Amino acid sequence: MAARAGGRLTFDALKKFVADRAKSPGYESIFDQLKVVSGGDGNCSCELVVSPKMLNDFGTLHGGVTASLVDAVSTYALTTTGSGRPGSSVDLNISYLRPVKVNEVITISARTLSCGRTIAFSCVDITKTNTGQLVAQGRHSKFVGEPKTSGSSTSS
Description:
Its main location: cytoplasm. This protein is of the alpha+beta class. Helices cover about 20% and strands about 35% of the residues.
């Protein structure tokens, strides 16, 4: 079980959580070199060297990989809020501003804007680590409420 402080994932637990996710057979395995730089209080910042497996046909970072980074790192930030659940995506929006080439290092900085009873909102900036140039910006909304049980019914 992950170490928690006041219901929030601690920084060390966050690093372990991210490392474990990268070892999973799911989509996050592409981020096996993702390094958590900081995290806590609804924030998470990671660095990643863009590898050849992350490129599109033009030799730059694939938009789908960028979207996955926004999804994943904003979820990591959410785990540090004390909501207790990583949630399920209900909306994901990405603005692609500049290309990123192989071997460039990027910083992915996620901030939880609000975490209510049922919905959480976050924003993510992806920058070139060496220049600080913004290359993509994302917004992510997640359902964090309790899922309905199969036995529940509604009356009209």
